[in-house]
Design goal:
The protein contains 8 helices and 9 strands. It is of the alpha/beta class. It has a single domain, classed as Class I glutamine amidotransferase (GATase) domain (Rossmann fold, 3-Layer(aba) Sandwich). The protein has a 7-stranded mixed β-sheet with strand order 3-2-4-5-1-8-9, sandwiched between helices. α4 packs parallel to α6. The protein is globular.
Length: about 200
C-alpha cells in the first residue's frame, strides 16, 4: 500500500513530484464541501496542474457508484482534499467508495491524503473531534476510519489556527500512536514502513 499523507498539499506536493508528474489524478474535494474556507482546494488543484497532472474531479457524495468506480480505476493517483474528516468518512462508508478505494490501493495505486484525507486513513477518527465538528447528519454508528494505517495522523500540528487544538489532542490521546505533522511535512507509507519527510 502506498500513501502520501500531509497537512497541506500545496506546501509539500513537490516532494512527490516524480510520482505525480504527468499522471492521472482522481481529485476528490468531498471533505471540503461544507467548509467556509476552501483555499487549500484551489492551491492543491493549481500545484497538480503545474506538475503536469491530469485531474478528474469527483465528489463521492453526489456521484453514482459506477462513476466513482470508473474514475478511480482510470486514475494513477487518488487524492482527497482537506475539510471535515467526519463528513468525508461518512460519505466514504455510505457510498461504498471506501471499498473502491481499498481495491485500487490493493492494485498498487498511490493515495494522497491532505488533512481530513490523511485523518480518515487511521483505525478511528474520534481523536480529531477537537478540530473537526461531527456533522448533525453523521450517519455512522461508530467513528471507525479506513484502517489503512495503524497510527493516527495529526495534521497542522502547532500551526494556526489549530495550535491549541493539536496540543490538546496530543495530550489527551497520549495512549495513541500519533504522528504529528506540521504544514511542511508529509508521512510516506510504503510496504508497512512510515517515513516523515519535509521540514
Amino acid at each position: 500500500m502506498r500513501l502520501f499523507l500531509c497537512s497541506h498539499f500545496s506546501s509539500v506536493g513537490n516532494l512527490a513530484k516524480e510520482e505525480v508528474e504527468a499522471k492521472k489524478v482522481a481529485f476528490v474535494p468531498t471533505a471540503s464541501l461544507r467548509e467556509g474556507y476552501t483555499g487549500y482546494v484551489g492551491s492543491a488543484r493549481k500545484l497538480f496542474k503545474k506538475l503536469g497532472a491530469q485531474l478528474a474531479e469527483i465528489d463521492i457524495s453526489s456521484e453514482e457508484y459506477a462513476t466513482v468506480r470508473a474514475v478511480f480505476e482510470e486514475a494513477d493517483i487518488i487524492y482527497f482534499t482537506g475539510g471535515n474528516s467526519f463528513f468525508l468518512m461518512d460519505q466514504l462508508r455510505k457510498t461504498g467508495a471506501d471499498g473502491l478505494l481499498k481495491q485500487q490501493l490493493g492494485n498498487g495505486k498511490l493515495m494522497i491524503g491532505e488533512s481530513a484525507g490523511a485523518i480518515v486513513c487511521a483505525p478511528a477518527i474520534s481523536y480529531i473531534e477537537r478540530m473537526d465538528e461531527k456533522p448533525s447528519d453523521y450517519s455512522q454508528q461508530d467513528d471507525a476510519g479506513l484502517g489503512l494505517i495503524d497510527f493516527y495522523v495529526l495534521p497542522h500540528y502547532l500551526t494556526a489556527p489549530f495550535k491549541k487544538a493539536t496540543a490538546l489532542i496530543m495530550d489527551e490521546f497520549s495512549d495513541l500512536d500519533i504522528c504529528p505533522l506540521g504544514n511542511s511535512q508529509a508521512v510516506v507509507v510504503e510496504e508497512g514502513s512510515r517515513n516523515v519527510i519535509g521540514a
